[in-house]
Amino acid sequence: MILEDVLIVDPVDGEYVGTVEFDEVIHKVVKTNKSNYRAILMPGFVDPHIHGIRGIDTMRATKKEFEMFKEYEALEGVWYFLPTTVTAPLEAIPHAKLPDGMKLHIEGPFISAKRKGAHNEIYLMPPSNKLFDVIPAEKIAMVTVAPELEGFDEFAKSCREKGIIVSLGHSDATFSQARDAYEKGTRRITHFPNAISSLHHRELGLVGAGLYFDFMVEVIPDGVHTSPEFIELVFKIKGPDKLQIITDSISATGLADGKYHLGDLEVFVEDGKAKLNNGTIAGSTLRYSQAIKNFARFTKCSLRDLVKVSSYNACLELGLNGGRIVEGYPAKLILTNENLDIVKIFNF
């Protein structure tokens, strides 16, 4: 396959018009001096935090549904994602049904009751290595944990030894507790700034720590979880190297308003907004193809920066061979028009 006169967007080499020759692997990339192009070529997206889509829920999915999950995400331009759990008994986490190569983001039960959001409080527990007695470590890519909970340090150390990323979230941690976690090696925050201790001028909390320290932070650019201006503010402060776009989407995504489930909790979707019956936001109905458009509109970022926050940063963090358009890399590519509408996907 040869694509000629496309705007190639690479997170390292930048944006330029050229030609790409590939099959499953990129064989040749040629830069030209042309300024006009027919379409935009970007690396496939990565979503490290997604609960479900089109009727599929991570906690209830069958093996067949996990395969469908991959197909639905491919239509959104996402070549790799982490099916994300919600708080439940450890034995209820569906690791045995995962396809080869797919890993989980464990969100709950090691979170704060005060900042639980749309998680079932009756199953909350302190962080424990019992997790690895129930779920093989090789099936887990990431765990969201509240650092103020007893046993956090020992658990975070065990995760690092097993190659599992610890992400701070659903936490009422003080700035001091967040700093301690950062200094001991935890460098990530889940769906920033939602469900974490807020910023105050005398106690910066986890929101303040996220801005003050060099944390990688997830953001949900749906205009519901945060205002567009907050996304722009975080982008200005953190820069494109320390942000990742996520959807946090649930099974209602791509479907009509109505009643759905997030784990064992009932979720009500109205005007595309997912909430529990008490009004608590319960994930999103954001599709990744819309998320990148929103982020670009909210921040006015360059395409190069958009590729960083939608693909490259997550690939680096997760150890994935992707996120670049250079010779030798897998040709998991997306062709879009000027409006960032997906025209064609390749190899996923």
UniProtKB/TrEMBL annotation:
Highest taxon, organism lineage: Bacteria
GO biological process: N-acetylglucosamine catabolic process
A molecular function GO annotation: metal ion binding
Residue span(s) of domain Amidohydrolase-related: 40-338
Cofactor binding, per record: Binds 1 divalent metal cation per subunit.
UniProtKB keywords: Carbohydrate metabolism, Hydrolase, Metal-binding
Enzyme Commission number(s) of this protein: 3.5.1.25
List of residues binding Zn(2+): 107, 170, 191
Cofactor(s), by name: a divalent metal cation
Pfam families referenced in this protein's UniProt entry, alphabetically: Amidohydro_1 (PF01979)
Active-site residues annotated for this sequence: 248 (proton donor/acceptor)
Residues noted as binding substrate in the record, renumbered to the chain: 118, 194-195, 202, 225, 281-283
Keyword Oxidoreductase: no
Entry-linked SUPFAM superfamilies: Metallo-dependent hydrolases (SSF51556)
Coiled-coil features, chain-numbered ranges: none
Family stated for the protein in its record: Belongs to the metallo-dependent hydrolases superfamily. NagA family.
Protein name per the record: N-acetylglucosamine-6-phosphate deacetylase
Gene name of the record: nagA
